[in-house]
């Protein structure tokens, strides 16, 4: 019997474990925390009955993922729920640009000729994003399965977001685009910072920006149940610091940051790989606040009141400025804030008229200050009276985020900086991104392609490399 150990139970670790188990490998997942899930966990806190996602909350890449989409996780209770409006970006004049289900619906609500330009930019991408998903959610250092679709995506992904925004005329539409681009957590004047926006917008217009009923924990629970049905095992409360902490196994998948992988593999790691992992950079951080809010957020704009996600960053110049400040290590007075209103699509998360509101601000990596008031002020800016509705709140600074998930070095929830080099060469310059250079050991975290998100594709591809090396029939037909 071929055996495997997976270190870390985030979506990538669990996905890798499932793929191995599907091909007859005896798999054990080791998790340092007392709960499985990594960034896909949900907690009942603040007010009894309110469910708060601990990190990942809205899941366009999960429904885009070819692997997760075809696992039949609905058999294990996973249900996707969609809000009326995917995304809203309010401005100080009381207006807001909104992103709806299709490119056509979104275009219809944008001012002037911006609608036609939005449709031209994202309509073709959305139409072909499912076909291109294997290429978009894998290493870019390989020949694509759909080169034409990938080239079309590249035209929208390669420019700096600061330049791409000029495709649209109105500040509202520019802000809508830049707010999505800001998910890259990098200076938006840098090349390729349009890439995350292109993918998230295209995926949204094809599959939506849904939430998991009952919280993101439902994704973890479904993957875990499937793994156990396949004969796999999970063990919590087991910290792996070095290879001596690992049981004997033919395959090891590491759902860890490169620095942790280097520590675990120790002297077995080839010097060139050790140097590359040591050069891996971590980007800006998040400061997260969970709120329990009576009656919900009193947005000035009705579109925000129907939106599952709200981006608070003001106009386009402000979004660009704050992204650059955070990248350079300066805490903005009014930071870019993401607000999640998952309860709008999934009322099971609320307790009567008290609703869980999820929010985080982009802050410099390792920021030690308390950004709670700045986040409340940003919400109040577009929803006067919000503070009066807060029943309870709980904050996590970058250090606490890292304590909860060691992959979030310095509070960087993306497990690495999304600068142009690291967007392409993840985590080092090699066509085999998941290989560590240690026989049988593979890296599968968000530091590998395709990066952060609840899609499981890092684990899927790493498991594919393992199967190929083992010489199984599944490995011989794998194109990872």
UniProtKB/TrEMBL annotation:
It comes from Lentzea jiangxiensis. This is Phytoene dehydrogenase-related protein. InterPro entries: FAD/NAD-bd_sf. Coiled coil: none annotated. It holds the Pfam family NAD_binding_8.
């Amino acid at each position: 019997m071929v055996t495997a150990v997976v270190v870390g139970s985030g979506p990538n670790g669990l996905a890798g474990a499932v793929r191995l188990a599907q091909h007859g490998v005896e798999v054990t997942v080791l998790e340092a925390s007392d709960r499985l899930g990594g960034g896909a966990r949900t907690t009942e806190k603040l007010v009894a009955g309110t469910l708060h996602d601990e990190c990942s909350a809205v899941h366009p890449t999960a429904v885009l993922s070819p692997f997760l989409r075809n696992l039949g996780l609905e058999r294990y209770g996973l249900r996707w729920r969609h809000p009326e409006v995917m995304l809203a970006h309010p401005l100080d004049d009381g207006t807001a640009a909104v992103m709806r289900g299709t490119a056509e619906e979104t275009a219809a609500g944008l001012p002037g000729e911006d609608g036609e330009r939005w449709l031209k930019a994202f309509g073709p991408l959305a139409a072909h994003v499912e076909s291109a998903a294997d290429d978009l959610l894998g290493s870019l250092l390989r020949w694509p399965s759909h080169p034409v679709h990938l080239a079309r995506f590249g035209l929208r992904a390669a420019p700096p977001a600061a330049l791409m925004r000029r495709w649209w005329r109105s500040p509202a539409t520019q802000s809508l685009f830049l707010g999505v681009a800001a998910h890259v957590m990098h200076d938006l004047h840098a090349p390729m910072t349009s890439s995350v926006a292109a993918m998230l917008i295209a995926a949204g217009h094809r599959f939506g920006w849904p939430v998991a009923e009952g919280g993101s924990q439902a994704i973890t629970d479904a993957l875990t149940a499937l793994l156990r049905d396949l004969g796999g095992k999970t063990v919590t409360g087991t910290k792996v610091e070095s290879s001596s902490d690992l049981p004997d196994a033919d395959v090891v998948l590491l759902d860890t940051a490169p620095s942790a992988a280097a520590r675990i593999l120790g002297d077995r790691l080839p010097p060139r790989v050790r140097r590359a992992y040591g050069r891996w950079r971590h980007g800006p951080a998040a400061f997260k606040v969970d709120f329990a809010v009576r009656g919900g957020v009193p947005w000035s704009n009705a579109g925000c009141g129907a939106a599952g996600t709200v981006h608070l960053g003001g106009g386009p110049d402000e979004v660009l400025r704050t992204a650059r400040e955070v990248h350079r290590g300066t805490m903005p007075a009014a930071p870019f804030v993401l607000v999640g209103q998952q309860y709008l699509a999934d009322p099971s998360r609320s307790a009567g008229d008290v609703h869980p509101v999820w929010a985080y601000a982009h802050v410099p990596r390792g920021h030690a200050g308390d950004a709670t008031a700045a986040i409340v002020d940003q919400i109040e800016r577009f929803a006067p009276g919000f503070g009066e509705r807060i029943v309870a709140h709980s904050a996590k600074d970058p250090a606490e985020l890292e304590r909860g998930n060691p992959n979030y070095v310095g509070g960087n929830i993306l497990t690495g900086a999304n600068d142009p080099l690291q967007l392409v060469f993840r985590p080092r310059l090699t066509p085999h991104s998941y290989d560590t250079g240690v026989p049988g050991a593979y890296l599968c975290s968000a530091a590998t392609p395709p990066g952060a998100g609840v899609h499981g594709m890092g684990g899927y591809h790493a498991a594919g490399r393992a199967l190929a090396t083992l010489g199984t029939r599944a490995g011989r037909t794998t194109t990872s």
